[in-house]
Design brief:
alpha/beta; 5-stranded mixed β-sheet; 13 strands; 33% helix; globular
Length: 317
């Protein structure tokens, strides 16, 4: 039986998963909304991935997690490696595009830029404060315009005179959008203007002070929007590559890292999706630090905890 490796990227907005083989071919994948419940999202993700997976030919021998809830979900699935999203995205992208110098990433709620030299991430920046350069911003504006966000890209490409939209922050952009609608600008021009404003906000905030060198790879959910891709190409005056699996790159990267690391004691069992996991936050109170400790329970049994700064705060199993 051949080996396979599971990678899960659990973010605040979306949860992604891939299973790869030794050649880094994707055997199974899924992309869903987290909906504020990372444990529940991980379970739903596995239920979607299991039917795609050929369990007669492959056994999952290592598991990696990344993203904002990587440690929590890592405990749930028994991860053999837990890595931050910068490392995971860099590894995933450079494995497909060894010459990449700049990785642009825009997700549902945050954005990041990663600068690469000789296949190694040497600098990065993240933006989690302003939503004007994210998928959540585009989604909210699509509702205001009575459009599906999936329509944005093709509609933007039809515009010959993109409407200037204030890109300084979400509040300014939204008020300016309303003003432009009232002035009678067409939806095509407004949508194209929104795509350009997302790019301007990203470059002025996340990319500020960064030397963006080619080749450039754009990933994250927003990379599926061809209007934003074109806006990046115009702003940077260079081609921008978008991989068909760019929205899965964090999960893909951490699956590769899992493949390079230690193995599970026994092959991964998808039945973990049906196990009840709960978290509880406990205030230690044993010393002036008063640490907030996160405890994870499986079927009411404490299986892991973190947050304590000394042994006194370590919960008893």
């Amino acid at each position: 039986m051949k080996e396979a490796y599971l990678g899960i990227d659990i973010g605040s907005i979306s949860t992604k998963g891939v299973i790869i083989d030794d050649d880094h071919t994707i055997l199974s994948s899924a992309y869903i909304w987290t909906e504020g419940d990372p444990i529940g999202a991980a379970g739903r993700l596995l239920r979607l991935m299991e039917p795609q997976f050929d369990a007669e030919s492959y056994a999952i021998t290592a598991v990696g997690t990344t993203g904002s809830a990587r440690k929590l979900v890592g405990v749930m699935v028994g991860a053999t490696i837990v890595k931050n999203e910068i490392t995971a995205h860099a590894i995933g992208t450079t494995s497909l595009y060894p010459d990449v110098r700049t990785i642009l990433e825009i997700g549902g709620q945050d954005s990041k830029i990663i600068l690469v030299e000789n296949g190694v991430a040497v600098d990065y920046a993240m933006n989690t404060l302003c939503a004007a350069g994210t998928g959540a911003f585009l989604s909210s504006q699509s509702k205001r315009l009575g459009l599906e966000v999936e329509e944005f890209g093709d509609l933007a490409l039809k515009s010959s005179h993109p409407t200037p939209i204030a890109a300084r922050c979400t509040v300014f952009a939204e008020s300016d959008l309303v003003h432009k609608i009232q002035m009678g600008h067409t939806k095509e021009d407004i949508v194209a203007g929104l795509c350009k404003s997302v790019v301007a906000n990203y470059l002025n905030n996340v990319g500020k002070g960064k030397k963006i060198a080619t080749p450039v790879v754009f990933q994250g959910g927003v990379s599926k929007n061809v209007g934003v891709v074109r806006a990046f190409e115009e702003a940077l005056d260079c081609p921008v590559t978008v991989d068909e699996n760019g929205h899965l790159m964090g999960a893909f990267g951490v699956a590769i890292l899992a493949a390079r690391g230690k193995r599970l004691a026994a092959p991964f069992d998808f039945s973990v999706e049906d196990v009840s996991f709960k978290t509880r936050e406990v205030s230690c109170g044993q010393c002036p630090n008063n640490c907030e400790i996160i405890c994870v329970y499986r079927e009411d049994e404490l299986i892991d905890s973190w947050g304590n700064r000394c042994e006194r705060g370590k919960p008893k199993r």
